[in-house]
Amino acid sequence: MGLMLVSALPSFAQARYTITEIGTLPGYQSSSLAYGVNNLGQVVGISMLTRPRPGPRGKKFSETFTHATPFLWEQGRMTYLPVPNGVTDAAAYDINNLGQIIGQAGGPVLWEKGVRYNLNSLIPANSGWVLQSVSSINDRGQIVGYGTHNGLRRGFILTPQ
């Protein structure tokens, strides 16, 4: 009795792909990371700018800091997603086919038609929930993530009314 190995790759694994560099936001020459894509080819992620940390009296320290800014990329153009003043690290994680984007910008947020909404302000104030992070949004606008409910870390799904 012999051993027979069969390699059955799924058909998509045999497909050929093209790759498109999406670039960075203007002035952000360091790097970019893509996190989400929808069926329309819209991409969301972060564009990062890394620069030397300023030292005393104009001297440069050897360490650097990175400023992460969320973006939407579509039809070859990357645009900035607005964040609250003073927020230096923000990210866009997912986009649905309606163009709704979720991410972090001083807390979990939803961007819709260019407007940013703090998700904690969209749930009842007396719910016992503090939303901390989001990871995905579907075409019904449902958002999943995690937060604390009455002090205990829990996953959640938000469903629009």
Report Rg.
20 Å
Number of helices: 0
Distance between the termini: 62 Å
Number of separate domains: 1
Overall morphology: globular
Could you explain the architecture of this structure?
There is one protein chain. This protein has 161 residues and is mainly beta. The protein has one domain (20-158). Helix content is 0%, strand content 50%. It is built from no helices and eleven strands. The strands form three sheets. A four-stranded antiparallel beta sheet has the order 1-2-3-4, with no helix packed on it. A hairpin with a 2-residue loop joins strand 10 (143-149) and strand 11 (152-158). It is globular. The chain starts with 30 loop residues before the first strand and ends with a strand. The mean pLDDT is 88.
Care to give the gist of this entry?
This protein is mainly β and 161 residues long.
Features of the shown structure:
161 residues, mainly beta, four-stranded antiparallel sheet, 11 strands, 0% helix
Secondary-structure blueprint of this entry?
Blueprint: E1 31-37, E2 43-54, E3 60-74, E4 77-80, E5 90-95, E6 101-105, E7 108-112, E8 115-118, E9 129-137, E10 143-149, E11 152-158
Antiparallel strand pairs: 1-2, 2-3, 3-4, 5-6, 6-7, 7-8, 9-10, 10-11
